[in-house]
Design a protein that fits this description.
Elements lengths: L1 E2 L7 E2 L33 E2 L6 E4 L6 E18 L19 E16 L5 E15 L14 E13 L13 E8 L1 E2 L27 E11 L2 E12 L6 E14 L3 E13 L7 E10 L8 E12 L4 E13 L8 E9 L20 H7 L6 E11 L4 E12 L12 E15 L2 E12 L1 H4 L12 E11 L1
Antiparallel strand pairs: 1-2, 3-10, 4-5, 5-6, 5-23, 6-7, 7-8, 8-9, 9-11, 11-12, 12-13, 13-14, 14-15, 15-16, 16-17, 17-18, 18-19, 19-20, 20-21, 21-22, 22-23
Protein name: Alginate export domain-containing protein
Length: 476
């Protein structure tokens, strides 16, 4: 059984409530290409301000007014064969080409302003816009989410804030307190639960580039002091849908503590108190997480994981999602190889809420075939093995193997097998210089019975699916 609710927003009833992808935002943070989600320095929680490194007014180091600008361009080209295992409809029922190709161009202009007082403290603000253009296939991407060659310009971020700077440096520490409000991007916990306030789809174009990030309205109060980080936040998402937008309002708190560079423990509570998405209307969401290097004798071993529990008795939501990951770096050996294993499980009605791509191939969009275009971390179990090789300081790459299974088979929807697909991806990241990053990935997925049964019987969805991508990030 297939439920169709608009461009790219169709889901199998077997996979539970609406759980469509968020924006991926693959650049421009090149540091994420060489770290993993269990590294302590992977992700800084709080307000995520877009890059603007060019100062055009003021002293870069002194007090007073400083104005900066930035411009980042994203260009991707995607080609696929048997995009949906030979079917000419996506897993959600949208029409697509059996062999599909398209390209996307996105532009992200940014303006930022800071005013710092000599005695300490500063006010800041920023604004950014996103321009997307999608060309190639008339159906757009492999989900059919961006048909008819969309092209759009929209305001993404526009916010004001205050930071304590040196005001409490002797007691709480430098930059200990911060408050910001407006249209802005806010994230914590590696983006597993909260990291993206808007995704580009439908008439907005840019499904693969996914540059838009900001919540429609947000307010965040943050403290960073002596290893503690805490956020109190309000988030309001107004997500484009054909016919009627999805609107979700939420509030919550996030906290983590870092132990002397060895480990980090965190927890969060999120209340989606009002939403026209039934799975999120009045839902209580709890998050626990930990990561670090707990074994002194194995300083190259990092482990971590997260657990999310969602409760909404009114709408029969009693679901969870979790992952556990281990990473080991073989240093002082040829190519400094790194080996990563992850196990992730998401129950039948789990909702990803505001999850993000969060940089690095294989993060929360697991699989360039399956995780990018088919299953979006609901009713899903995943085993992932990833290798990373460091050819030079600027060039790294490797391979990622996945095994995907439905968390629960849904015989009422004609799906009797939990086994969905096996996928193998090969990727490359090349930091050419401070202005240019080149990335490439090729992946193929071999369908199991669960995947074939997820498409209409007359589609014969039993072919190996191939996807190849070239991606460029240009920073001014």
């Amino acid at each position: 059984m297939i439920r169709n609710i608009g461009y790219g927003l169709t889901v199998l009833a077997a996979t539970g409530p609406l759980c469509v992808p968020a924006a991926q935002a693959r650049g421009p943070n090149k540091s994420k290409a060489s770290t993993t989600v269990v590294d302590l320095d992977y992700f800084d929680a709080g307000l995520q301000q877009p890059d603007a490194t060019n100062v055009f007014y003021g002293d870069d180091d002194g007090p007073g007014l400083k104005l900066r600008w930035g411009l980042t361009l994203f260009l991707s080209g995607v080609a696929s064969k048997n995009a949906n295992y030979g079917s000419n409809v996506s897993i959600g029922g949208n029409p697509v080409n059996e062999d599909n190709a398209w390209w996307e161009h996105s532009g992200l202009p940014v303006l930022r302003a800071d005013y710092t007082w000599a005695e300490g403290g500063r006010v800041f603000g920023g604004a950014s816009a996103v321009y997307n253009i999608t060309r190639g296939s008339g159906f757009g991407d492999n989900t059919g989410a961006t048909p008819n060659h969309p092209e759009a310009l929209r305001l993404d971020q526009a916010y004001l804030g205050w930071n304590s700077g040196q005001l409490f440096a002797d007691s709480l520490g430098e930059d200990a307190l911060q408050f910001a409000a407006g249209r802005m991007d806010f994230a914590f916990g590696e983006g597993f639960l909260v990291g993206d306030g808007y995704f580009d789809t439908g008439k907005q174009g840019g499904y693969y580039n996914g540059v838009s990030e900001a919540f429609e309205k947000a307010a965040v109060a943050t403290i960073d002091s002596h290893g503690w980080h805490g956020d109190l936040f309000y988030l309001e998402q107004d997500q484009f849908r054909p016919g009627r937008d999805d609107e979700t309002r939420s509030y919550g708190a996030n906290v983590h503590y870092r132990f002397t560079g060895r480990a980090e423990l965190g927890a969060a509570y999120l209340k989606t108190y009002k939403s026209n998405v039934p799975a999120l209307d009045g839902t209580d969401i709890y998050n626990l997480r930990a990561k670090g290097k707990p074994i002194p004798a194995l300083k190259n071993l990092a482990i971590g994981g997260q657990y999310v529990y969602e409760s909404n008795p009114k709408n029969d939501i009693d679901d969870s999602g979790w992952y556990a990951e281990a990473s080991y770096k073989f240093q002082n050996t040829w190519l400094d190889p790194q080996l990563i294993y992850r196990r992730a499980e998401f129950s039948a009605n789990y909702n990803t809420v505001y999850y993000d791509w969060s940089g690095g191939w294989g993060n929360w969009y697991m699989g360039e075939v399956v995780g990018e275009f088919q299953l979006f971390n609901s009713n899903l179990d995943v085993d992932m093995v990833k290798t990373k090789l460091h050819f030079t300081d600027r060039l790294n790459g490797g391979a990622i193997a996945y095994r995907f299974s439905y968390h629960n088979a849904q015989e009422s929807a004609g799906i009797t097998s939990r086994n969905f697909a096996k996928e193998l991806d090969f990727y490359m990241n090349f930091n050419v210089n401070k202005h240019l990053i080149l990335q490439a990935v090729y992946g193929f997925a071999v369908p199991d019975d669960g995947a074939t049964q997820s498409f209409p019987d007359d589609q014969n969805a039993d072919q190996v699916s191939h996807v190849g991508v070239l991606f460029a990030t240009v920073m001014f």
